[in-house]
Amino acid sequence: MAEKILMKGNEAIGEAAICAGCRYYFGYPITPQSELIAYMAKKLLKMKDASFVQAESELAAINMVYGAASTGVRVMTSSSSPGISLMQEGISYIACSEVPCVVVNMMRGGPGLGDIQPAQGDYFQATKGGGHGDYHLIVLAPSSVQELVDLTMDAFDLADKYRNPAMILGDGLLGQMMEAVEFKERPKVDLPSKESWTLVGCKGRKPHWIVPFNLNPSVLEKMNLVINEKYKKLKEHEVRYESINIENADLIIVAYGTVARIVKTVIQKAKKEGINIGLIRPITLFPFPEKIISKTAERIKKFLVVEMSLGQMIEDVKLAVNGKAEVNFYGRCGGIIPTPIEILKELNKYL
Amino acid sequence: MKKVFGRPESLTETPFTYCPGCHHGIAHRLVAEVLDEFGVRENTIGVCPVGCSVFAYLFFNCDMICAAHGRAPAIATGIKRSKPDSIVFTYQGDGDLASIGTAEIVHAANRGENITVIFINNAIYGMTGGQMAPTTLVGQVTQTSPYGRDPKTMGYPIKMAEMLSTLKSATYISRVALNKPSNIIKAKKSIKKAFQIQLEGKGFSMVEILSTCPTNWGLSPIEASKWLEENMIPYYPLGEFRTPEEVA
Fold it and tell me: Phi and psi dihedrals of B125, rounded to 5?
C-alpha cells in the first residue's frame, strides 16, 4: 500500500497527472490554481520526453494542448474561471476533432474578473459545452484532495477511452486545502489504440487529417451525430455519484464538490436535531446522475439543491425529478462558502 | 524517357481550389518541393489556418491539422514539443498571422520554437470577400476601408518580418515574392533555408511571401502581379531580415 502524504490540492492534481503518464503541460498563471502550473514546471522541466510551456495566454495554452494531443500524448492544462472562458474556442475545436486531453478548472467567483475565492458558477459552462456548437466535456467533480488525485487519473483514462476532452471541475477551496493523500497503484485499463488518427508522420500510410470543420452540412451533421453517440455511451456507462442515507430521508440534498463536504456536516447536525437528511453527490456532472435522482424522487418528495452559485445544477436536478418532487434551492455566490448552520436553517423551512 | 518535371510527391492529386492568378498554388508547390528535396514528407506535420488556405490539408500530402483562426503557432508548438523529431510547419495568411494571431506568432518566435512558418501576405482578407487586413496598404480600397485605408484611424500596414526580427530568439526571417520567375527562384531558396534551419534544430524560421489576390483586388492575374511589384514591394522590401549567423 502506498504511503499517505500531506499535499495541497493543486499540487496533488499535478502529481496525479504525472502518475497517469502526462508529460506535457501548457498553461497560464491564474489564482487560485497557480500551485498546479508551478508544480508541473518543477517536475516536467526536469523530465526526459516531457515538455512544459508557460503560454502567452490561455488561448495559446489550449491550442498547444490541441497540438500535443493530436500526436497522441497525454496532455493537460489548468486554469480558473476567467482563463477557462478564454479556452472555450480551443475546447470546442478539440471536442470536434475528438482528441483526448484533460482540462482543470479550479473555479473562482465570477462573472467578469470576479474574485479569487471558491465558487461553482461555471457549472453551466462546464456541463453544457461551454464554447460554440453541440458538444460536451466529460466533467468530474472532486470533493476532497484524494478525489482530486483519483479523478485526475480517471480523467486521462476517460478522455482516451472516449476521445473526448475531460474536465476536472474543482474550486479554489479544493485547490488550496491540504489533506493526506495516497497515490494508489491502479489496475491496468484497456484503452483503444490511438494509431488510427494521431499525427506522427505518414510513413507507410496515407496522411491523417485532424479537421474540425466540414462545409457540407450533411457531413457536419453526421460528424455531430457520431460525437453524440459517445455522449449516449457516457450516460450509459460512466455515471458516478455518492449517495448517503437516501432510503428514508425526510429531505434529499443534491450538492457536489466543496458544498457536498459541507452537507455531510449538515447531515450529522440534523441527525442530532432528529432530522433525517439524505445526500446525492454527483461525481460526474456530465454525464449527470439523473437516474438515481429520478428514482429517489419517486419515494422522497422534498429536494434541496445547494450550490456555490445562484442556481445552475438545480436545472439538471429538476429535469431528473421531472415534477415528481418539490425541488428547492439554496446558494451563495461571489466566493462565499455556505456554512452548515445556514444550510440547516434553510432546510428547516421545507420540513 | 527522362522525366524532367512532375508533381511533387508532397502535393496530393487534389486540384487547388484557389482563384486563377492567386499565388497560394505556387507557394504550396514550393513548400512541397522543399519537403521532397529533404525527403521529410513522411515525417512532416502541417498546420493550416483559417482563411483561403483552410483547405491546405487537402493539398499537402502529409499529416495535417486545422487550427482555429490565428492559433497555428500555438498548435505547432504543442506538436513540436511532443514530437521533437518531426518537421512542423504552419501555413498562415495575413489576417490569421498578423491580426487575430499576433500574440501566438510573436511568442512562438520569442520562445524560439523549432518550427517553420509560411506567411502569405496578400494585403487583404481573401476568404471572407476582401476586407482590410493589417497588411493592407495605405489608401488601398477594401470592403471595410471603402474610402481607402486611412492611417489616422486604421493605422499603417504591419511589417511582420521586420517586427519579428527584433526578437533575439527568431533564427531566420525573410520576405520573398512570387510575382515573377526570378523572385520565385529566390523564394524557393528562402523556404529551403527555413526548413534547413528546422532540420538542424536551430529554431524559429519564417518566410513572409508577398502574394496576389486578383479576385479581391479586382485585377486580372497579370495586373495583380504588376500591382504587387509596384505597390507592395516598395513598402515591404524583400530580403533576409534575420539569418542564423546573427544568432549567437
Answer: -85, 120
Q: What is the domain extent for residue A251?
A: 242-348
Same domain, A230 and A276: no
Residue A264 Cα distances to A9, A243, A247, A280, angstroms: 20, 11, 16, 10
Among all residues of chain A, which has the CA nearest to that of B64? A209
Decide if A205 is inside a domain: no
Number of H helices, E strands in chain B: 11, 7
- Domain-embedded: residue A208: no
Residue A212 in domain: no
> What residues of chain B lie within 8 A of the CB of A51, using their CB?
81-82
Q: Do A209 and B54 touch (CB under 8 A)?
A: no
Domain chopping of chain B, boundaries: 24-246
Closest Cβ–Cβ partner in B42, B60, B78 for A66: B78
Q: Which CATH superfamily is domain B24-246 in?
A: Thiamin diphosphate (ThDP)-binding fold, Pyr/PP domains (3.40.50.970)
Our count of domains for chain A comes to 2
Neighbouring C-beta atoms of residue B95, cutoff 10 Å: 26
ipTM value: 0.96
Question: H-helix or E-strand containing B93?
Answer: strand B87-93
Nearest to B57 among A61, A66, A209 (CB): A209
Q: Which residue type occupies B160?
A: M
Tens digit of each residue's pLDDT, chain A (351 residues): 578 999 999 999 999 999 999 999 999 999 999 999 999 999 999 999 999 999 999 999 999 999 999 999 999 999 999 999 999 999 999 999 999 999 999 999 999 999 999 999 999 999 999 999 999 999 999 999 999 999 999 999 999 999 999 999 999 999 999 999 999 988 889 999 999 999 999 999 999 999 999 999 999 999 999 999 999 999 999 999 999 999 999 999 999 999 999 999 999 999 999 999 999 999 999 999 999 999 999 999 999 999 999 999 999 999 999 999 999 999 999 999 999 999 999 999 999
Residues A143 and A283 in one domain: no
